[in-house]
Every structure is written in structure tokens, then in C-alpha cells.
User: Fold this.
Amino acid sequence: MTARTVVLTGASDGIGAAAARALTRAGDQVVVVGRSPAKTAALAAELGTEHLVADFARLDEVRGLASALLSTYPQIDVLANNAGAIFGATRTVTADGFEPTFQVNYLAPFLLTELLHDRLVASRATVINTSSVAGARFGRLDLDDLQSSRGYSATRAYGSSKLAQILHAKELDRRYGADGLAAVSFHPGGIASNFSTTDGSPWRFLYRSRLKNLVLNSTEQGADTLVWLAQTPPHEGWEPGGYYVKRRPGRVVSAVEDAGLAAGLWERSVGMLGLG
Ligand SMILES: NC(=O)c1ccc[n+]([C@@H]2O[C@H](COP(=O)([O-])OP(=O)(O)OC[C@H]3O[C@@H](n4cnc5c(N)ncnc54)[C@H](OP(=O)(O)O)[C@@H]3O)[C@@H](O)[C@H]2O)c1
Assistant:
């Protein structure tokens, strides 16, 4: 049987690298996508698979990534939008003019998914967004201020980007579920990875702590729900449009059930990217 093709972003480290290892062991062809050329190439060499590099803080690199994927892989069975980060206390903007948390965690994967849309539908693919419980705890999506230009806080920007990823999966399901595309999001748990370890990151005291392995789970545990969603057909344990934690439906806030918010976010995103 031909191996399934799994495109996995944020695969050069942490949860993504653990998922890439598990899926490769299970027989999938994982396309390892990372930002750091050296780390991404090293993991691909370890797994004997192919890799691509793109910095999601640069939308031209996301477009280049999509072109490379479309020209190389006639079938994409799974797209896992897993790359993500939290940024510092001071608001900055990317070269594309967007607040970095919004762009890297949400807008860039939205663009990648849109550029791959026809291939994903033709492949009857599953799209998996790595979200976070931070979406429910700290997210507050204001369609008139998606760039956090008023009252920026790194924690709120991160939570809002993760809430946007849940809404993205829900809206993908509403728009394209009937065409055969299955979209879903999940929270990996609090995971001891490189996440939030950079200077200025609001949660660095936890994620850099020498005790972090006592209070946080392993990257393999963080990858478990991603791997399960990637390997399990939709409607056989999970429902498209859903949000999962430890392989079970997660608790969601009212914003997640707000179809107008999800549709509005979609329209704003298309407008920002000049699509459609
Ligand atoms: N760790 C947690 O407790 C936790 C909890 C909830 C949700 N999450 C989410 O889980 C996902 C994976 O995080 P992790 O814990 O595995 O963190 P990690 O160890 O820091 O790995 C992050 C991955 O994302 C990639 N990445 C970061 N910035 C990028 C950019 N600008 N462009 C492209 N790729 C970029 C990194 O690439 P390079 O290494 O090549 O730079 C790396 O492969 C993220 O979406 C995160 O928000 C994590």
C-alpha cells in the first residue's frame, strides 16, 4: 500500500518532532516542515524523509512552501498546522505588517491551507490545527482589532491566535466538510518543549524551569492527540469541526460556537491576504 503523505509544520522541534517520529514509525510519509534549516534537515535525515523550510513570519516563504508542496506531492492526506510560538511583552510587526503572534500562529497557516485547498479537497484530507487551552483562558477575538493594536499583551495575543485556530477548523468544516475535507483542532497539554523559552516570553519562568519536567508532560504525550487525529478517519472517534483534548472533546467557550465570529474572521483573513 502507498504510504499516506502527512505535511507537518513545526516538525523541527517539540511536539511536531515527536509526532513526526511516531507517524513515520507507523508507516506514513511525513514531510517535515520547520523554520530552522539545520534542525529541520537533521530531523528529516534521522527519519529518512523529505523536508521543507519556511519562516511563517514571512508570507512570501509560506507561498513558496505551498508551491513546493503542490509541485512535489500529488496527494496530501494530512496537513498538520502545528508551528507556533508566543512572543514578547512589546508589540512588533512582521515585514508583512501583521502582529507576529497573529501571523505565525493563525494567518500563515490559514494562507497555507487556502493555497493547498484544491489538493486537500481532492485528497479528502484531514487538516489538524494545534491550538491550546490558552484560547479559552486568554483569547478575546475582536474582529476590528485582530492585530492587537489596542492594549497588546503577549498572553492575550497568544490566546486569541489559538482561539482563531479553533474557529478556523470549524469554519473549514462548515465550508468544505461536504466536499470531503475534515478539519479539527486540539490542545496538546502543557508540554516541556522549547515553547516560551525565549527571553521576554511571558511564561519563560515555567518553561525554562529545571522543574519543568515535573509539572509539564513530555513531547511524546503532547503529540499523542495529533497522531491519533492524523491516523483515525473522521467520524471514527472524532468529529470534524471539533476541538479535542486527550483524545476527547474539549471544553469550549461561547466564542467557539459563534458562527458569525468564525465567518467574520474568515472574511477578514481573506481580505488581509488579498485572496479571492
Ligand atoms: N508546549 C506547550 O505547552 C503547548 C501548549 C499548548 C499548545 N502548544 C502549541 O503546540 C505547537 C508546537 O509547540 P511546541 O511546544 O512543540 O514548541 P517548540 O518546541 O518551540 O516547537 C515549535 C515549532 O514551531 C516552529 N516555529 C516557531 N516559529 C516559527 C515560525 N516563525 N515559522 C515557522 N515555524 C515556526 C519551530 O521551528 P524551529 O524550531 O525550526 O524554529 C518548531 O518546529 C505550537 O503551535 C504551540 O502554540 C504548545
Observations:
- The first helix runs from residue 14 to 25.
- Residues 5-273 form a domain with the Rossmann fold fold (CATH 3.40.50.720).
